[in-house]
């Protein structure tokens, strides 16, 4: 593990959130879909379960996508991360839950609006990447027909393809077929 468990989980949740409208259309278009996403990543605290909450999460998704897109420009990315920390009024405190007994940080009150809490925690996880000099782990899928994001948690930072559309496998098959067609042309 490169980062703390909660940092890695939050970064994975941020990727899933960003990708929720980049592959196969809108996947968080209503409250039940948002609830499924939240439950799958263990988000706790206040949920208003209304259209305004879904809209606020969509706005957060856009901001996070812009941070990923800016990852190659550290100053620009840091500016956006700092703005998100400021806008969400992040205020760290240690906590633990029965389902996650290790101490971890929460960065907003459980009574704050959902998108504010999510934004604060995701911004802090991104700040952890910056502090570790690992911002380059934020990537956009290398497949030419995919714009999904990924967090490269591999040891050597070699991951190139997302998990959303089987992109790595498709690219490897295409490269294999290209090599085979060239070999066939040489044999003739």
UniProtKB/TrEMBL annotation:
Pfam families: ABATE, zf-CGNR. Residues 137-180 form the Zinc finger CGNR domain. Transmembrane segments: none annotated. It comes from the Bacteria. InterPro entries: ABATE, ABATE_dom_sf, Znf_CGNR. This is Zinc finger CGNR domain-containing protein.
């Amino acid at each position: 593990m490169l980062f703390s468990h909660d940092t890695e989980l939050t970064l994975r949740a941020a990727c899933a959130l960003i990708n929720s409208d980049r592959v196969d259309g809108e996947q968080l278009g209503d409250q039940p879909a948002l609830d499924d996403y939240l439950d799958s990543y263990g988000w706790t605290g206040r949920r208003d379960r209304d259209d305004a909450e879904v809209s606020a999460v969509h706005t957060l998704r856009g901001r996070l996508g812009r941070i990923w897109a800016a990852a190659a420009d550290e100053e620009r990315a840091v500016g956006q991360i700092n703005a998100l920390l400021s806008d969400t009024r992040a205020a760290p405190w240690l906590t633990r839950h029965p389902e996650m007994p290790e101490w971890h940080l929460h960065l907003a009150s459980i009574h704050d609006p959902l998108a504010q809490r999510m934004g604060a925690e995701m911004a802090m996880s991104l700040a952890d990447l910056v502090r570790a000099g690992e911002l380059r782990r934020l990537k956009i899928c290398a497949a030419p027909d995919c714009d999904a994001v990924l967090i490269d948690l591999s040891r050597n930072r070699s991951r190139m393809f997302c998990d959303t559309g089987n992109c790595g496998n498709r690219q490897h098959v295409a490269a294999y077929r290209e090599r085979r067609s060239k070999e066939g042309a040489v044999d003739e």
